[in-house]
Amino acid sequence: MNDIFRELEEATLDQYDNYDLPKWLADPVLVVARNPLAYQGKEYLIEILLAQVREYDVYAEAGCCKWAYDHEDIKRTLGWLEEER
Amino acid sequence: MAIYLDCNATTPVEPSVASVVMRFLEKDFGNAASPIHDHGVFALAAVEHARGQIAEVVKARRDEVIFTSGATESNNLALLGLAEAGTKSGRRHLIATAIEHKAVLEPLEEMARLGFEVQILPVQADGRIDPQRLSDALRPDTLLVSTMHVNNETGVFQPLTEVADILSNRETWWHVDAAQGFGKELEQLRNPRIDLISISGHKIYGPKGVGALIARKHDRQFPPLRPLMFGGGQEQGLRPGTLPVPLIAGLGEAAKLAVRNNAERIEKCRMFRHKILPPFLALGAAQNGTEEYTLPHVLNVSLPGINSEQAIKALKRVIAVSSTSACTSHTRTPSHVLGAMGLSSEKVEQSIRLSWCHMTPEVDWSEVEHILRALRG
User: Hey, which residues of B are catalytic here?
Assistant: First the structure.
Protein backbone atom coordinates (compact mmCIF):
# COMPACT_ATOMS: atom_id res chain seq x y z
CA MET A 1 0.00 0.00 0.00
CA ASN A 2 2.80 2.42 0.88
CA ASP A 3 4.36 2.25 -2.59
CA ILE A 4 1.73 4.49 -4.13
CA PHE A 5 2.11 7.02 -1.32
CA ARG A 6 5.89 7.01 -1.69
CA GLU A 7 5.50 7.53 -5.44
CA LEU A 8 3.14 10.43 -4.75
CA GLU A 9 5.65 12.08 -2.43
CA GLU A 10 8.50 11.65 -4.92
CA ALA A 11 6.46 12.96 -7.84
CA THR A 12 5.24 15.98 -5.84
CA LEU A 13 8.73 16.92 -4.69
CA ASP A 14 10.03 16.52 -8.23
CA GLN A 15 7.29 18.71 -9.69
CA TYR A 16 7.80 21.31 -6.95
CA ASP A 17 11.61 21.37 -7.08
CA ASN A 18 12.09 21.10 -10.82
CA TYR A 19 8.88 22.21 -12.52
CA ASP A 20 5.89 24.50 -11.94
CA LEU A 21 3.87 22.90 -9.13
CA PRO A 22 3.24 25.77 -6.66
CA LYS A 23 3.87 25.44 -2.94
CA TRP A 24 0.23 26.07 -2.07
CA LEU A 25 -0.67 22.96 -4.08
CA ALA A 26 2.37 20.84 -3.23
CA ASP A 27 1.87 21.21 0.52
CA PRO A 28 -1.58 19.60 0.79
CA VAL A 29 -0.55 16.82 -1.61
CA LEU A 30 2.46 16.07 0.57
CA VAL A 31 0.19 15.89 3.62
CA VAL A 32 -1.72 13.12 1.85
CA ALA A 33 1.45 11.36 0.66
CA ARG A 34 2.91 11.32 4.17
CA ASN A 35 -0.21 9.97 5.86
CA PRO A 36 -1.00 6.64 4.24
CA LEU A 37 -3.00 5.37 7.18
CA ALA A 38 -5.38 8.31 7.02
CA TYR A 39 -6.16 7.55 3.37
CA GLN A 40 -6.30 3.77 3.54
CA GLY A 41 -8.97 2.41 1.19
CA LYS A 42 -8.73 5.43 -1.08
CA GLU A 43 -5.91 4.15 -3.27
CA TYR A 44 -7.91 4.67 -6.45
CA LEU A 45 -8.10 8.40 -5.74
CA ILE A 46 -4.43 8.44 -4.74
CA GLU A 47 -3.59 6.95 -8.14
CA ILE A 48 -5.60 9.68 -9.86
CA LEU A 49 -3.83 12.31 -7.77
CA LEU A 50 -0.44 10.82 -8.61
CA ALA A 51 -1.22 10.93 -12.35
CA GLN A 52 -2.39 14.53 -12.02
CA VAL A 53 0.76 15.58 -10.19
CA ARG A 54 2.98 13.83 -12.73
CA GLU A 55 1.15 15.47 -15.63
CA TYR A 56 0.69 18.85 -13.98
CA ASP A 57 1.08 21.83 -16.25
CA VAL A 58 0.21 25.45 -15.62
CA TYR A 59 -0.88 25.77 -19.23
CA ALA A 60 -2.83 22.53 -19.38
CA GLU A 61 -5.83 24.14 -21.00
CA ALA A 62 -3.93 26.26 -23.49
CA GLY A 63 -4.68 25.44 -27.12
CA CYS A 64 -7.52 23.39 -28.51
CA CYS A 65 -7.45 20.44 -26.11
CA LYS A 66 -6.73 19.90 -22.49
CA TRP A 67 -3.61 17.76 -22.73
CA ALA A 68 -2.39 17.86 -19.10
CA TYR A 69 -3.79 18.40 -15.58
CA ASP A 70 -3.99 21.79 -13.90
CA HIS A 71 -4.42 23.12 -10.35
CA GLU A 72 -8.22 22.79 -10.52
CA ASP A 73 -7.93 19.06 -11.17
CA ILE A 74 -5.57 18.54 -8.25
CA LYS A 75 -7.64 20.70 -5.91
CA ARG A 76 -10.75 18.76 -6.84
CA THR A 77 -9.11 15.39 -6.19
CA LEU A 78 -7.82 16.62 -2.82
CA GLY A 79 -11.41 17.56 -2.01
CA TRP A 80 -12.67 14.10 -2.97
CA LEU A 81 -10.06 12.53 -0.72
CA GLU A 82 -11.55 14.35 2.25
CA GLU A 83 -15.09 13.18 1.38
CA GLU A 84 -16.64 9.79 1.97
CA ARG A 85 -16.00 8.91 -1.69
CA MET B 1 -15.19 -27.78 -13.39
CA ALA B 2 -12.56 -28.12 -16.09
CA ILE B 3 -9.54 -25.88 -15.83
CA TYR B 4 -9.83 -22.98 -18.23
CA LEU B 5 -7.12 -23.01 -20.91
CA ASP B 6 -8.74 -20.70 -23.44
CA CYS B 7 -7.35 -17.33 -22.35
CA ASN B 8 -6.85 -16.21 -25.94
CA ALA B 9 -10.63 -16.35 -26.34
CA THR B 10 -11.13 -14.31 -23.21
CA THR B 11 -9.32 -13.94 -19.92
CA PRO B 12 -10.67 -14.10 -16.41
CA VAL B 13 -11.13 -10.68 -14.81
CA GLU B 14 -8.58 -9.49 -12.27
CA PRO B 15 -10.25 -9.01 -8.85
CA SER B 16 -9.16 -5.37 -8.59
CA VAL B 17 -10.60 -4.72 -12.06
CA ALA B 18 -13.93 -6.16 -10.95
CA SER B 19 -13.83 -3.91 -7.86
CA VAL B 20 -13.28 -0.79 -9.94
CA VAL B 21 -16.07 -1.76 -12.35
CA MET B 22 -18.46 -2.36 -9.46
CA ARG B 23 -17.58 0.98 -7.90
CA PHE B 24 -18.68 2.81 -11.04
CA LEU B 25 -21.75 0.63 -11.51
CA GLU B 26 -23.06 0.91 -7.98
CA LYS B 27 -21.79 4.14 -6.47
CA ASP B 28 -20.11 6.56 -8.84
CA PHE B 29 -22.55 6.30 -11.72
CA GLY B 30 -22.14 9.78 -13.21
CA ASN B 31 -22.01 10.57 -16.91
CA ALA B 32 -18.58 11.74 -18.02
CA ALA B 33 -20.23 14.00 -20.57
CA SER B 34 -22.11 15.88 -17.83
CA PRO B 35 -19.34 17.58 -15.86
CA ILE B 36 -21.71 20.23 -14.61
CA HIS B 37 -21.92 18.56 -11.21
CA ASP B 38 -19.65 16.46 -9.07
CA HIS B 39 -21.07 13.12 -10.27
CA GLY B 40 -20.14 13.94 -13.84
CA VAL B 41 -16.81 15.48 -12.94
CA PHE B 42 -15.76 12.38 -11.03
CA ALA B 43 -16.81 10.14 -13.93
CA LEU B 44 -14.79 12.32 -16.29
CA ALA B 45 -11.78 12.16 -13.98
CA ALA B 46 -12.03 8.36 -13.97
CA VAL B 47 -12.22 8.25 -17.78
CA GLU B 48 -9.22 10.54 -18.18
CA HIS B 49 -7.29 8.52 -15.60
CA ALA B 50 -8.04 5.32 -17.51
CA ARG B 51 -7.01 6.99 -20.75
CA GLY B 52 -3.62 7.75 -19.20
CA GLN B 53 -3.24 4.21 -17.87
CA ILE B 54 -3.87 2.77 -21.34
CA ALA B 55 -1.61 5.29 -23.09
CA GLU B 56 1.20 4.40 -20.71
CA VAL B 57 1.27 0.79 -21.93
CA VAL B 58 2.41 1.88 -25.40
CA LYS B 59 4.00 5.21 -24.39
CA ALA B 60 1.36 7.20 -26.25
CA ARG B 61 -0.29 10.41 -25.11
CA ARG B 62 -3.52 10.44 -23.17
CA ASP B 63 -5.39 12.28 -25.91
CA GLU B 64 -4.41 9.61 -28.44
CA VAL B 65 -6.68 6.99 -26.83
CA ILE B 66 -10.17 6.67 -28.34
CA PHE B 67 -12.52 4.41 -26.43
CA THR B 68 -14.55 1.87 -28.42
CA SER B 69 -16.60 -1.26 -27.71
CA GLY B 70 -13.61 -3.52 -28.36
CA ALA B 71 -10.90 -4.43 -30.83
CA THR B 72 -13.36 -5.31 -33.60
CA GLU B 73 -14.78 -1.81 -33.58
CA SER B 74 -11.29 -0.33 -33.28
CA ASN B 75 -10.16 -2.30 -36.34
CA ASN B 76 -13.21 -1.12 -38.28
CA LEU B 77 -12.59 2.50 -37.30
CA ALA B 78 -8.90 2.30 -38.21
CA LEU B 79 -9.52 0.70 -41.61
CA LEU B 80 -12.88 1.97 -42.86
CA GLY B 81 -12.19 5.28 -41.15
CA LEU B 82 -9.35 5.90 -43.61
CA ALA B 83 -11.45 5.11 -46.69
CA GLU B 84 -12.40 8.69 -47.39
CA ALA B 85 -8.78 9.86 -47.11
CA GLY B 86 -7.79 7.15 -49.57
CA THR B 87 -10.52 8.03 -52.00
CA LYS B 88 -9.74 11.74 -51.91
CA SER B 89 -5.99 11.26 -52.27
CA GLY B 90 -6.23 8.53 -54.89
CA ARG B 91 -4.34 6.08 -52.70
CA ARG B 92 -6.37 2.92 -52.98
CA HIS B 93 -3.82 0.19 -52.29
CA LEU B 94 -4.08 -1.64 -48.96
CA ILE B 95 -1.78 -4.32 -47.56
CA ALA B 96 -2.58 -6.86 -44.85
CA THR B 97 -1.40 -10.33 -43.94
CA ALA B 98 -3.02 -13.71 -44.42
CA ILE B 99 -3.15 -14.39 -40.69
CA GLU B 100 -5.16 -11.34 -39.68
CA HIS B 101 -8.28 -11.79 -37.59
CA LYS B 102 -11.64 -11.65 -39.35
CA ALA B 103 -12.15 -8.29 -37.65
CA VAL B 104 -9.46 -6.97 -39.99
CA LEU B 105 -10.04 -9.13 -43.05
CA GLU B 106 -13.77 -8.43 -43.30
CA PRO B 107 -13.51 -4.62 -43.08
CA LEU B 108 -10.88 -4.92 -45.80
CA GLU B 109 -13.33 -6.95 -47.89
CA GLU B 110 -15.75 -4.08 -47.48
CA MET B 111 -13.07 -1.64 -48.61
CA ALA B 112 -12.44 -3.83 -51.66
CA ARG B 113 -16.14 -3.55 -52.42
CA LEU B 114 -15.72 0.23 -52.23
CA GLY B 115 -13.04 0.11 -54.90
CA PHE B 116 -9.83 -0.38 -52.93
CA GLU B 117 -7.22 -2.92 -54.00
CA VAL B 118 -6.41 -5.23 -51.09
CA GLN B 119 -3.17 -7.17 -51.20
CA ILE B 120 -2.83 -10.03 -48.73
CA LEU B 121 0.72 -11.04 -47.87
CA PRO B 122 1.50 -14.70 -47.19
CA VAL B 123 3.22 -15.82 -44.01
CA GLN B 124 6.10 -18.19 -43.48
CA ALA B 125 5.89 -21.64 -41.89
CA ASP B 126 7.00 -20.12 -38.59
CA GLY B 127 3.82 -18.08 -38.47
CA ARG B 128 5.49 -14.73 -39.19
CA ILE B 129 5.33 -12.36 -42.08
CA ASP B 130 8.45 -11.79 -44.15
CA PRO B 131 9.29 -8.08 -43.85
CA GLN B 132 11.02 -8.17 -47.23
CA ARG B 133 7.77 -9.23 -48.90
CA LEU B 134 6.08 -6.27 -47.28
CA SER B 135 8.81 -3.98 -48.52
CA ASP B 136 8.40 -5.36 -52.04
CA ALA B 137 4.63 -4.89 -51.92
CA LEU B 138 4.69 -1.18 -51.00
CA ARG B 139 3.67 1.24 -53.75
CA PRO B 140 3.38 5.01 -53.98
CA ASP B 141 -0.40 4.64 -53.74
CA THR B 142 -0.34 2.37 -50.67
CA LEU B 143 -2.71 4.03 -48.22
CA LEU B 144 -2.46 1.58 -45.37
CA VAL B 145 -0.57 -1.42 -44.03
CA SER B 146 -2.34 -3.55 -41.41
CA THR B 147 -0.32 -6.13 -39.52
CA MET B 148 -1.30 -7.93 -36.36
CA HIS B 149 0.87 -7.86 -33.26
CA VAL B 150 0.38 -11.37 -31.88
CA ASN B 151 -1.60 -14.05 -33.66
CA ASN B 152 -4.65 -15.22 -31.77
CA GLU B 153 -4.37 -18.86 -32.82
CA THR B 154 -0.63 -19.50 -32.54
CA GLY B 155 0.57 -16.86 -30.08
CA VAL B 156 3.35 -15.94 -32.53
CA PHE B 157 4.42 -12.30 -32.37
CA GLN B 158 5.14 -10.47 -35.59
CA PRO B 159 8.34 -8.58 -36.52
CA LEU B 160 6.90 -5.13 -35.96
CA THR B 161 10.28 -3.52 -35.33
CA GLU B 162 11.45 -4.62 -38.78
CA VAL B 163 8.18 -3.42 -40.30
CA ALA B 164 8.70 -0.05 -38.60
CA ASP B 165 12.11 0.26 -40.22
CA ILE B 166 10.64 -0.51 -43.63
CA LEU B 167 7.89 2.06 -43.18
CA SER B 168 10.11 4.69 -41.59
CA ASN B 169 10.33 6.90 -44.66
CA ARG B 170 6.91 6.11 -46.10
CA GLU B 171 3.74 8.10 -45.78
CA THR B 172 1.67 4.93 -45.62
CA TRP B 173 -0.55 4.68 -42.53
CA TRP B 174 0.21 1.67 -40.35
CA HIS B 175 -2.40 -0.10 -38.26
CA VAL B 176 -1.60 -2.88 -35.78
CA ASP B 177 -4.31 -5.15 -34.43
CA ALA B 178 -2.89 -5.70 -30.95
CA ALA B 179 -5.88 -7.44 -29.36
CA GLN B 180 -3.75 -10.40 -28.31
CA GLY B 181 -0.47 -8.72 -27.50
CA PHE B 182 -1.33 -5.40 -25.88
CA GLY B 183 -0.19 -5.47 -22.27
CA LYS B 184 1.69 -8.72 -22.79
CA GLU B 185 4.54 -8.00 -25.21
CA LEU B 186 5.25 -4.37 -24.37
CA GLU B 187 8.23 -3.19 -26.37
CA GLN B 188 7.17 -3.41 -30.01
CA LEU B 189 3.94 -1.42 -29.61
CA ARG B 190 5.93 1.48 -28.16
CA ASN B 191 7.46 2.14 -31.56
CA PRO B 192 6.25 5.63 -32.50
CA ARG B 193 6.03 4.67 -36.19
CA ILE B 194 2.85 2.70 -35.49
CA ASP B 195 -0.02 5.06 -36.27
CA LEU B 196 -3.00 3.04 -35.11
CA ILE B 197 -3.28 0.31 -32.46
CA SER B 198 -6.44 -1.69 -31.74
CA ILE B 199 -6.85 -3.11 -28.25
CA SER B 200 -9.45 -5.05 -26.29
CA GLY B 201 -10.31 -5.09 -22.59
CA HIS B 202 -11.29 -8.72 -22.20
CA LYS B 203 -7.95 -10.07 -23.43
CA ILE B 204 -6.04 -8.37 -20.60
CA TYR B 205 -8.14 -9.41 -17.59
CA GLY B 206 -10.51 -6.49 -18.07
CA PRO B 207 -14.22 -6.35 -18.88
CA LYS B 208 -15.87 -7.33 -22.16
CA GLY B 209 -17.49 -4.63 -24.27
CA VAL B 210 -14.71 -2.09 -24.11
CA GLY B 211 -11.53 -1.45 -26.04
CA ALA B 212 -9.70 1.40 -27.64
CA LEU B 213 -8.11 2.63 -30.80
CA ILE B 214 -4.83 4.33 -30.01
CA ALA B 215 -4.23 6.83 -32.80
CA ARG B 216 -0.86 8.55 -32.60
CA LYS B 217 -1.01 12.19 -33.54
CA HIS B 218 1.43 13.92 -35.84
CA ASP B 219 1.72 17.67 -35.34
CA ARG B 220 -1.21 17.31 -32.93
CA GLN B 221 -3.38 15.85 -35.68
CA PHE B 222 -4.92 12.39 -35.78
CA PRO B 223 -4.48 10.30 -38.90
CA PRO B 224 -7.27 11.37 -41.31
CA LEU B 225 -9.94 9.14 -39.78
CA ARG B 226 -13.64 9.62 -40.35
CA PRO B 227 -16.07 8.34 -37.71
CA LEU B 228 -18.23 5.33 -38.53
CA MET B 229 -21.10 6.56 -36.36
CA PHE B 230 -22.56 9.97 -35.67
CA GLY B 231 -24.39 11.59 -32.80
CA GLY B 232 -22.73 13.33 -29.89
CA GLY B 233 -19.18 14.10 -30.92
CA GLN B 234 -17.58 12.21 -28.05
CA GLU B 235 -14.00 10.96 -28.28
CA GLN B 236 -12.81 13.98 -30.25
CA GLY B 237 -15.52 13.40 -32.81
CA LEU B 238 -14.36 9.93 -33.74
CA ARG B 239 -16.64 7.73 -31.66
CA PRO B 240 -19.96 9.10 -30.47
CA GLY B 241 -22.04 7.68 -27.64
CA THR B 242 -22.16 7.89 -23.86
CA LEU B 243 -18.94 6.52 -22.46
CA PRO B 244 -19.32 3.31 -20.42
CA VAL B 245 -17.46 4.64 -17.41
CA PRO B 246 -17.44 1.35 -15.41
CA LEU B 247 -15.94 -0.56 -18.35
CA ILE B 248 -13.45 2.18 -19.16
CA ALA B 249 -12.29 2.46 -15.55
CA GLY B 250 -11.94 -1.34 -15.49
CA LEU B 251 -9.92 -1.31 -18.69
CA GLY B 252 -7.66 1.35 -17.21
CA GLU B 253 -7.06 -0.74 -14.10
CA ALA B 254 -6.31 -3.77 -16.29
CA ALA B 255 -3.83 -1.73 -18.33
CA LYS B 256 -2.12 -0.52 -15.17
CA LEU B 257 -1.71 -4.08 -13.92
CA ALA B 258 -0.46 -5.22 -17.31
CA VAL B 259 2.52 -2.92 -17.01
CA ARG B 260 3.09 -3.27 -13.29
CA ASN B 261 2.89 -7.07 -13.23
CA ASN B 262 4.24 -7.84 -16.69
CA ALA B 263 7.45 -9.62 -15.67
CA GLU B 264 5.73 -11.62 -12.93
CA ARG B 265 2.94 -12.73 -15.27
CA ILE B 266 5.40 -13.79 -17.96
CA GLU B 267 7.37 -15.82 -15.46
CA LYS B 268 4.25 -17.62 -14.21
CA CYS B 269 3.21 -18.40 -17.78
CA ARG B 270 6.70 -19.71 -18.55
CA MET B 271 6.59 -22.03 -15.55
CA PHE B 272 3.23 -23.35 -16.69
CA ARG B 273 4.66 -23.85 -20.18
CA HIS B 274 7.50 -26.00 -18.83
CA LYS B 275 4.88 -28.40 -17.49
CA ILE B 276 2.63 -28.44 -20.55
CA LEU B 277 5.27 -29.17 -23.17
CA PRO B 278 6.48 -32.65 -22.03
CA PRO B 279 3.12 -34.47 -22.25
CA PHE B 280 2.41 -33.07 -25.69
CA LEU B 281 5.91 -33.85 -26.93
CA ALA B 282 5.45 -37.39 -25.60
CA LEU B 283 2.34 -37.65 -27.78
CA GLY B 284 4.34 -36.62 -30.83
CA ALA B 285 2.60 -33.27 -31.11
CA ALA B 286 3.93 -30.76 -33.62
CA GLN B 287 3.89 -27.16 -32.50
CA ASN B 288 2.29 -24.75 -34.91
CA GLY B 289 4.39 -21.60 -34.89
CA THR B 290 8.03 -21.40 -33.93
CA GLU B 291 8.66 -21.60 -30.21
CA GLU B 292 11.20 -18.75 -30.36
CA TYR B 293 8.51 -16.31 -31.47
CA THR B 294 5.62 -17.65 -29.41
CA LEU B 295 4.40 -15.81 -26.32
CA PRO B 296 4.74 -17.99 -23.22
CA HIS B 297 1.02 -18.38 -22.55
CA VAL B 298 0.01 -20.04 -25.83
CA LEU B 299 0.58 -23.45 -27.36
CA ASN B 300 -0.96 -24.52 -30.66
CA VAL B 301 -0.24 -28.14 -31.53
CA SER B 302 -1.34 -30.74 -34.03
CA LEU B 303 -1.75 -34.17 -32.48
CA PRO B 304 -1.04 -37.00 -34.94
CA GLY B 305 -3.94 -39.43 -35.22
CA ILE B 306 -6.30 -37.33 -33.08
CA ASN B 307 -9.09 -35.18 -34.42
CA SER B 308 -9.21 -31.88 -32.54
CA GLU B 309 -12.97 -31.89 -32.11
CA GLN B 310 -12.84 -35.33 -30.53
CA ALA B 311 -9.91 -34.30 -28.36
CA ILE B 312 -11.68 -31.22 -27.06
CA LYS B 313 -14.78 -33.25 -26.20
CA ALA B 314 -12.77 -36.00 -24.53
CA LEU B 315 -10.84 -33.49 -22.44
CA LYS B 316 -13.79 -31.32 -21.47
CA ARG B 317 -13.99 -32.56 -17.88
CA VAL B 318 -10.30 -31.84 -17.29
CA ILE B 319 -9.35 -28.82 -19.40
CA ALA B 320 -11.31 -26.33 -21.51
CA VAL B 321 -9.46 -25.68 -24.77
CA SER B 322 -10.35 -24.70 -28.32
CA SER B 323 -9.30 -25.55 -31.83
CA THR B 324 -9.36 -22.15 -33.46
CA SER B 325 -10.24 -18.55 -32.74
CA ALA B 326 -13.33 -17.94 -30.64
CA CYS B 327 -14.82 -15.76 -33.34
CA THR B 328 -14.71 -18.48 -36.00
CA SER B 329 -15.05 -21.67 -33.94
CA HIS B 330 -18.84 -21.47 -34.06
CA THR B 331 -18.75 -21.60 -37.86
CA ARG B 332 -16.61 -24.77 -37.92
CA THR B 333 -14.54 -23.41 -40.75
CA PRO B 334 -10.95 -24.63 -40.89
CA SER B 335 -8.33 -22.26 -39.53
CA HIS B 336 -7.24 -19.78 -42.20
CA VAL B 337 -4.20 -19.00 -40.06
CA LEU B 338 -2.81 -22.53 -39.98
CA GLY B 339 -3.69 -22.91 -43.65
CA ALA B 340 -1.71 -19.78 -44.45
CA MET B 341 1.26 -21.25 -42.59
CA GLY B 342 1.19 -24.17 -45.02
CA LEU B 343 -0.26 -26.86 -42.77
CA SER B 344 -2.07 -29.71 -44.49
CA SER B 345 -5.82 -29.94 -43.92
CA GLU B 346 -5.16 -33.09 -41.88
CA LYS B 347 -2.85 -31.23 -39.51
CA VAL B 348 -5.28 -28.34 -39.27
CA GLU B 349 -8.01 -30.75 -38.22
CA GLN B 350 -5.66 -32.17 -35.57
CA SER B 351 -4.82 -28.80 -34.04
CA ILE B 352 -5.78 -27.55 -30.62
CA ARG B 353 -4.96 -24.27 -28.96
CA LEU B 354 -4.15 -24.05 -25.27
CA SER B 355 -3.82 -20.61 -23.73
CA TRP B 356 -3.39 -19.88 -20.05
CA CYS B 357 -2.52 -17.00 -17.75
CA HIS B 358 -0.92 -16.08 -14.44
CA MET B 359 -4.13 -17.07 -12.63
CA THR B 360 -4.42 -20.55 -14.17
CA PRO B 361 -4.33 -23.33 -11.54
CA GLU B 362 -2.31 -26.53 -11.85
CA VAL B 363 -3.44 -29.16 -14.35
CA ASP B 364 -3.06 -32.92 -14.02
CA TRP B 365 -1.11 -33.36 -17.25
CA SER B 366 -0.75 -37.11 -16.80
CA GLU B 367 -4.54 -37.39 -16.97
CA VAL B 368 -4.60 -35.26 -20.11
CA GLU B 369 -1.96 -37.45 -21.73
CA HIS B 370 -3.84 -40.59 -20.68
CA ILE B 371 -7.11 -39.35 -22.23
CA LEU B 372 -5.44 -38.38 -25.49
CA ARG B 373 -3.58 -41.72 -25.76
CA ALA B 374 -6.83 -43.59 -25.19
CA LEU B 375 -8.44 -41.52 -27.93
CA ARG B 376 -5.69 -42.40 -30.34
CA GLY B 377 -5.80 -46.09 -29.40
Answer: 327
Write the pLDDT tens digit of every residue in B1-53.
999 999 999 999 999 999 999 999 999 999 999 999 999 999 999 999 999 99
Check: CB of residue B191 under 8 Å from CB of residue B168. no
Q: Do B63 and A65 make contact, defined as CB atoms within 8 angstroms?
A: yes
Domain ranges of chain B: 3-11+262-376, 15-260
Check: CATH 3.40.640.10 for B15-260?
Answer: yes
Q: What is the DSSP letter of B333?
A: P
User: Which amino acid is located at B134 in the chain?
Assistant: L
DSSP character string of A49-67: HHHHHHTB-TTTT-SSS--
Q: Could you give the CA distance from residue A80 to residue B326 in angstroms, rounded to a whole number?
A: 42
Chain centroid to Cα B20, Å, comes to 23
What residues does B286 pair with on adjacent strands? B302
Question: Taking CA B57 as the corner, what is the angle to CA B56 and CA B63, rounded to the nearest 5 degrees?
Answer: 45
Quick count: other Cβ atoms within 10 Å of Cβ B136?
Answer: 11
Whether residue B373 lies within 8 A of chain A, CB to CB, comes out as no
Question: Are the beta carbons of A55 and A6 closer than 8 angstroms?
Answer: no
Percent of chain B having pLDDT more than 90? 96
- B chain contacts of residue A73, beta-carbon cutoff 8 Å: 45
Hey, how many other C-beta atoms are within 10 angstroms of the C-beta on B50?
29
The answer to whether A80 contacts chain B (CB < 8 Å) is: yes
CATH topology of domain B3-11+262-376: Aspartate Aminotransferase, domain 1 (3.90.1150)
**Where exactly are the structural domains of chain A?**
2-82
The ipTM is 0.91
Distance, in Å, from the CA atom of A75 to the CA atom of B172, rounded to the nearest integer, reads 44
How far is the C-alpha of B169 from the C-alpha of B172, rounded, in Å?
A: 9
Type of residue at A2: N
Give the orientation angle of helix B38-58 with respect to helix A71-82, to 10 degrees: 110
Whether the domain at B3-11+262-376 and the domain at B15-260 fall into the same CATH topology: no
Rounded to whole angstroms, the Cα distance separating B358 from B294 reads 16
